[in-house]
Amino acid sequence: MDLSLVALTPFLGAGFVAAISRRGRLHAAWGAGAVTLTALFILSPYIKDAFSGQVLVQSISWIPMLGMDLAFRLDGLALLFVLLILCIGLLIILYARYYLSDRDDMGRFYAYLLMFMGSMLGIATSENIIQLLIFWEMTSLSSFLLISYWQTRHESRSGARMALAVTGGGGLALLGGFLLLGKIVGSYNLTDILDSGDLIRSHDLYLPMLILVLLGAFTKSAQFPFHFWLPNAMAAPTPVSAYLHSATMVKAGVFLLARLFPALSGTSAWFWLVCFTGLVTLLVAAYIAMFKHDLKGLLAYSTISHLGLITLLFGIGTPMAALAGVFHIINHAIFKASLFMAAGIIHHETGTRDMRILRGLWQYMPHTALLAMVAAASMAGVPLFNGFLSKEMFFAETLFVINLPWGWLLPTAATLAGIFAVAYSLRFIHNVFFDGTPVDLPKQPHEPPRWMKVPVEILVALCLLVGVFPAITVEPILAVAASSVLQGPVPDHDLAIWHGFNTAFFMSMAALGGGILLYLIRKPLFVLQERVESLLDFRALYEFLLEKLFYLANTVTCILNTHSLQRMVFIFMVFILALGISGVLATDYDYGLTGERNLLSIDGVSLLIATVLVIAAIATVVMHRQRLISLVLLGAVGLGVSLIFVKFSAPDLALTQLSVEVVTIVLMLLALYFLPQQSPDESGKWLRSRDAVIATAAGGGVALLVWAVLTRPYDSIADYFLENSLPGGGGTNVVNVILVDFRGYDTLGEITVLALAGLGIYAMLEHLKIAGASHDSEGRAWDEDLHPIIMASFTRLLLPLAILVSMYILLRGHNLPGGGFIAGLITAVALVMQYLANGVIWTQERLPINMQKVIGYGLLIATVTGLASWFFGYPFLTSTFDHIHWPVIGEFELASAMAFDLGVYLVVVGATLLILVYLGLVHHQSHQMKHRKRIR
Amino acid sequence: MELLIAIIIGVLTACGVYLSLRGRTFPVVLGLTFLSYAVNLFLLIMGRLTVGAPPIISDTAANYADPLPQALVLTAIVISFGMTAFVIILSLKAFLEMGNDQVDGKHKP
Q1: pLDDT in tens, A302-332
Q2: A274, A650, A799, A928: most buried by Cβ count inside 10 Å?
Q3: Residue among A601, A611, A627, A675 with most chain B CBs within 10 A, to mutate
Q4: How many CB atoms lie within 10 A of CB A583?
């Protein structure tokens, strides 16, 4: 088994879950659970090694030119996160199955959740930091989908967008930071980066790199002043909040701090930036949390505050502080996930999350209340619960700076934050479960389904177990995770509840006592807070900036876009002319216009054709307001162009141009029927002369350019194709061999474009109903005889012959002028003749072929032909050929390229007919509509 | 012969530019068709003018025309058909929805 599969399994599982959810509502939940268990199973063989302190690195070559590999790494820290992500993920999957209502699409929810899980696992196990960043951005994207799960709600959409804007923006900064880091170290691999801490810290680019990396980490972990996205992300379904906003997504930022701790920490820049941010976040968020009336809002700010605490610990930078940071990551994940789930249960069973309405729920749901109380006590840092242990370690570590000037500030602020935390935890419990009896609840509260509480029970049991027996429960994983954070031995630590009457203990007690006191006097504080609330509103700032950004974008667009195609094309043409002229003027060398190549002599026929062509072209322009006449003249120009192809040794082009010309003119005639028959004389004399000057200048410039090119000799790479066409491609028609073999990949792209154009037109024409004009532009009624009998009979007779010719052209294309494009066009022309002569309905009844399918099969055949060469170990679209001897017919060549050409043929036939037939159907309906009108 | 080709391509370009500067959709589509003729011919003549020597391998041929521009132009012709078709249907749809065939998509006053 492979380590990469741990991260990739959830991605594969996402598609699987989405697929099976169609078979039944709960299939998705079971599927997601099975996928998570599979990932755990794949991980299981490595757990023992990781616990013993080994670092496992597996890499797959990815872009060797850039020194980039897909590399996965499992060490203590990665293991801790992988276990958190998978185990809490499993509980969330169980919880969400009961949380989501019948109206919610389970498949979509679990597919997004698994995508998120995979991205998160990718972050935890990436060895290559660029790869880490890709997963990092994928968590932003998948969390966007999860937060906006209830797409119809405005706050879901705006919350999701805000989360994406802030964390995605941080991701960009992080990309910059990682690129600098890679430049400093000369490698993007974590192993090398963690080994070169001294090099990194002494490098000139250290500070900009550090700031960029920290911006990434702080936005993700909702640190001040980027914290505002997290409360707004509470519009997500509660299982999402419990997963993303307690245990995983927001932990990615502190994970990054822990991951790069050995490489980046230990400088004063690190200390000040990280400590200060952490401290401000810790204090401000804990303060705001006290005043939130929304249950989830309170938990969101509490989460921000705890993330600040962890950040602060990594900022302090001592080994012991880093250990405490890791410990608090574990504890916070456990108690906060259970609290979010408890809040979800309360919301689910009462219909509200507003703490001004909720009260006295103890008598309705004592079981849930008990669970919430334990988790809240852990959040507050009450002894015997896990939160107490890491919080006390935190208090002890803040004393580390006590000897610095103003050093007392840190422990004081920490105690103050502790007081706030106790106050809001107390409020969460007292306000919701006690404090009178509930009135006017949207729903009559009762206990939730049995299994909805199981995930909460498991986590709450862990709170207690870790809190009471830390040494036998959490110590092994903590030690191995801390040692990989420190990249060295773990400091001596004693995970005991009782450390004697030391300063940290007194700080804990002060926090507990102060918190209770603060809660008792909360009423005047609420009044005070309402007055200053607007001062700390970063959401308004964000929205202000967003509005300005849109305004700026609008302004720039308005400057560049004149909202007039005519004017834009004019500017474009003038600009191109200016470019050409300045290019000529800027040339230093004194080239003559005429080169030294021998010229061909002009013969009479060529002169005649050229004259006719030029006259027809100019006449088209002169007559362009008479649309039908100009169209006929355009057809003449097209025929002239195909004659030029004939003259200059391009038989394939001549055939293609000829058949395209027919199809184009038919199409334009069909469209013209609905359009005005004449263009009004709008542009004044001045405008017309201006355009004429530009057109003449452009034409003159191109003519001079052509003259200059044609009179000069040149070197071509054509010799390669001419030499290798027969031995390598097995065909004598070099143009066709280039199309289906040498440059087959281009051709595949081109038929895809054609297919898309056909489908786009189909989309525009489907269900289109237009009434055509009953008279032509000169007031004459249309001929009632739509399908003249002589033409109909003749085209029917000619059809087999035409199809035979096109088949012949297709088959001989490899060796003589022809091939898929030309044969496809000829077939299309032959069939279009039937439609024209016999009517759309008559023909469709006899040719009931779905053209979209023909296009699809064509693309499929061409692609499969390309893929087939993989099975023989050759690159995509390598061709092969052989000669076989058939009785009667004689020697016959079979080439794999012919299958490819068949694909081309089908796409061309399908796209061309799709376009024309659908426009023809619109015509047919318009005639019917007209007819009906007349009857009325 | 080179002079003739230069004139033809120049005229086709000039016609294309003039028509694509018009204010109604139909002439603009015609203009785009002209421009694709001009560009296709321009691409072809990058392989210079060769008379009577198609790039089909045979024992008797003394020289061949350059096959590479021909292959490029062949697909270009088909793609420009796809584009022309798309644009003409788009203009038809715009005409139906706007009530006029102004290129700037102006609604009925």
Answers
A1: 999 999 999 999 998 889 999 999 999 999 9
A2: A650
A3: A675
A4: 9
**Among A428, A419, A418, A161, which Cα is nearest to A299's?**
A428
Average pLDDT over residues A125-135: 93
Three-state DSSP at A781 gives: strand
Asked whether the predicted pLDDT for residue A290 surpasses 50, the reply is: yes
Kindly indicate the confidence band of residue A935, based on its pLDDT and cuts at 50, 70 and 90: very low
User: From the candidates B19, B24, B35, B101, which should be mutated to test the interface with A, based on the most A CB atoms within 10 A?
Assistant: B24
* CB < 8 Å to B32, chain A: none
What would the two tokens of residue A196 be? 């070169």
Supply the angle between the helices A503-520 and A386-398 in degrees, to the nearest 10: 110
Round to whole Å and give the CA distance between A671 and B88: 7
Q: Is A601 on the interface with B (CB under 8 A)?
A: yes
A98 and A13 Cβ atoms separated by less than 8 Å: no
3-class secondary-structure state, position B56: strand
User: Among A653, A680, A816, whose Cβ lies nearest the Cβ of B77?
Assistant: A653
Output the average pLDDT for chain A. Answer: 87
Give the Cα separation of B77 and A821 in Å (integer).
10
Return d(Cα A139, Cα A31) in angstroms, integer: 21
Q: Tokens 């999701």: give the residue.
A: A160
The first and second tokens of residue A713, run together, are 């000799």
Residue count of chain A: 936
Cα(A242)–Cα(A84) distance, integer angstroms? 13
For residue A751, give how far its alpha carbon lies from the nearest alpha carbon of chain B (Å): 8
Q: Of A815, A652, A651, whose CA–CA distance to A725 is shortest?
A: A815
- Per-residue pLDDT of A465-475, as tens digits, reads 998 888 888 88
More reliable by pLDDT, A728 or A750? A750
CB B25 within 8 A of CB B94: yes
Tell me the pLDDT tens digit for each residue of A689-729: 999 999 999 999 999 999 988 988 888 888 888 888 888 77
Note the pLDDT of residue A936: 43
Task: List Cα–Cα distances, A161 to A123, A143, A165, A166, in angstroms.
Answer: 22, 10, 6, 9
The maximal CA–CA distance of chain B, rounded, in angstroms, is 69
Question: Vertex A795, ends A794 and A796: CA angle to 5°?
Answer: 90
3-state secondary structure of A714: coil
> Look-up: residue for tokens 């840190």?
A410
Two structure tokens written together for A507: 């700080």
Residue A785: pLDDT above 80? no
Q: A683 to chain B: which residues are within 8 Å by CB?
A: 22-23
Are A894 and A882 within 8 A, CB to CB? yes
pLDDT digits (tens, 9 = 90+) for A501-558: 788 888 888 888 998 888 888 888 787 777 776 666 677 788 888 889 999 999 988 8
Chain B environment of A746 (Cβ under 8 Å): 75
User: How many CB atoms within 10 Å of residue A838?
Assistant: 19
Q: What is the number of other CB atoms lying within 10 angstroms of the CB of residue A585?
A: 7
Return phi, psi of residue A523, to 5°.
-60, -50
The vertex-A145 CA angle with A144 and A147, nearest 5°, equals 65
Interface test with A, best of B60, B63, B68 (most A CBs within 10 A): B68
Q: Return the residue matching tokens 């032959």.
A: A830
CA separation for the pair A177, A465 (Å, rounded): 40
d(Cα A510, Cα A501) in Å, to the nearest integer? 13
CA-wise closest residue to A634 among B30, B3, B9 = B30
- How many other CB atoms are there within 10 angstroms of residue A111's CB atom? 26
Which of B82, B73, B65 has the alpha carbon at shortest distance from A667?
B82
CA–CA–CA angle A735, A736, A742 (5° rounding): 85
Chains A and B form CB pairs within 8 A to the count of 291
pTM recorded for the entire structure: 0.71
